[in-house]
């Protein structure tokens, strides 16, 4: 693929906790597209799922520790510091205000893309960013089954030309083949709730610095955290 160094890619999530599935996905996309930077943006108040187990400040700290292990991955605290639901549109608008001429690319799993029409102001995402769609382990993405309005956007905007990312600020969709990393934050939490034996099970699934932070702050200790 041609290089698109000027493009800033963004990966959102609860990161509860951040693990190598998140980090290596971001690093793989960065390498595949020749990007200089990928921002990992922990959600403050996620609008489409249950509230995270760990506090916003803990999740931000873990994301910062995880990103420190990878060149070009940077934790971004704007959703943590912004009041109200963590809508992606607002995050992209904020990034554009900082650098109006910098193209943005939203990194999104194919399963999340399939539900994009339920997102707040979802059609505006295409005016604010390119979309990088990656398939998660255990999922099969079928564009033909997308809702009609979203399928129309898919067919209109899908490209294989990464040069479009340099020529325009937003509007294209690119499928990015990456190595799947079948790691689950919920499975990590469930293991950690079992105590020392669980800690041994999750070693290697997340950076050592993140696991040390979890142990130091006694996160995910209760059985309730494992749900």
The CATH H-level homologous superfamily? HUPs
CATH class category label: Alpha Beta
- The side-by-side strand order for the widest beta sheet comes to 3-2-1-4-5-6
Number of strands: 6
What does this molecule look like?
By secondary structure, the protein is an alpha/beta fold. It has one domain (8-182): HUPs (Rossmann fold, 3-Layer(aba) Sandwich), CATH 3.40.50.620. Helix content is 39%, strand content 13%. It contains eleven helices and six strands. It has helices spanning 20-33, 56-67, 78-81, 88-98, 110-114, 125-128, 148-157, 163-167, 185-192, 196-202, 208-216; strands at 8-13, 37-42, 73-75, 104-109, 130-134, 173-175. Strands 3-2-1-4-5-6 form a six-stranded parallel β-sheet, sandwiched between helices. Strand 1 (8-13), helix 1 and strand 2 (37-42) form a beta-alpha-beta unit. The radius of gyration is 17 Å and the shape is globular. Residues 223-227 have low confidence and may be disordered.
Search tags:
globular; six-stranded parallel β-sheet; single chain; Rossmann fold; 227 residues; 11 helices; alpha/beta
């Amino acid at each position: 693929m041609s290089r698109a160094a000027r493009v800033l890619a963004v990966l959102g999530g609860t990161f509860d906790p951040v693990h190598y599935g998140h980090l290596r996905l971001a690093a793989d996309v960065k390498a595949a597209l020749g990007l200089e930077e990928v921002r990992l943006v922990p959600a403050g108040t996620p609008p489409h799922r249950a509230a995270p187990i760990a506090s916003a400040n803990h999740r931000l700290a873990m994301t910062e520790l995880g990103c420190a292990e990878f060149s070009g991955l940077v934790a971004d605290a704007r959703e943590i510091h912004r009041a109200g639901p963590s809508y992606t549109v607002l995050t992209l608008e904020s990034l554009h205000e900082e650098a109006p001429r910098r193209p943005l690319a939203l990194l999104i799993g194919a399963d999340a893309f399939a539900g994009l029409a339920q997102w707040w102001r979802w059609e505006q995402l295409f005016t604010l960013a390119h979309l990088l769609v990656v398939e998660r382990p255990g999922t099969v993405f079928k564009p033909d089954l997308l809702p009609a309005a979203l399928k129309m956007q898919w067919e209109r905007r899908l490209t294989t030309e990464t040069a479009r990312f340099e020529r325009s600020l937003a509007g294209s969709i690119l499928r990015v083949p990456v190595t799947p990393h079948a790691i689950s934050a919920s499975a990590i939490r469930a293991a950690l709730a079992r105590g020392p034996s669980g800690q041994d099970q999750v070693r290697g699934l997340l950076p050592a610095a993140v696991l040390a932070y979890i142990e130091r702050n006694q996160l995910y200790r209760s059985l309730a955290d494992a749900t």
